[in-house]
Specification:
The protein is mainly β and about 140 residues long. It contains one helix and seven strands, in the order βββαββββ. It is globular and about 40 Å long.
């Protein structure tokens, strides 16, 4: 999707996740790797209010084949889904002006030790994932 320098994504490319009607993409905050399946982070602006968008994501992501794993309603609400070998995290928060901001992060589902995409750095000098949790 971002295979060529200067290419920009189209919302039509993301047919496996919910894109609310009238949403716009924030290209400067979006990073997509691959095509089918895609991984990365998709940043959107939408006209809807948080409670309605939260319920829409819970309902419509399931209709797209995603299974809800967990969710939390707060000033920044988060819903996590799983589908096949991918995990989707949807973060919803009120926009400073009006409407809502949505960040959809898709990553491979990790096994023991987890899975990563990219070079292993976050751009902030730290690791791209936390240390594995020790299971007892």
């Amino acid at each position: 999707m971002f295979s060529d320098v200067g290419s920009t994504p189209s919302l039509a490319q993301f047919n496996d996740v919910l894109i609310p009607a009238g949403a716009k993409i924030y290209v400067e905050r979006t990073l997509i790797l691959g095509e089918n399946p895609w991984y990365g982070q998709l940043a959107l602006g939408a006209a809807g209010e948080l409670p309605a968008l939260f319920e829409q994501y819970r309902r419509d992501m399931q209709a797209l084949g995603w299974q809800e794993i967990t969710s939390i309603r707060a000033a920044i609400s988060v819903i996590t889904f799983m589908r096949e070998d991918r995990v989707a995290t949807v973060q919803l928060q009120a926009s400073r002006l009006r409407g809502s901001e949505i960040t959809i992060t898709i990553s491979p589902r990790g096994g023991v030790g987890g899975a990563t995409i990219g070079s292993g750095a976050t751009g902030r000098g730290g690791p791209s994932r936390p240390a594995p949790v020790q299971r007892q």
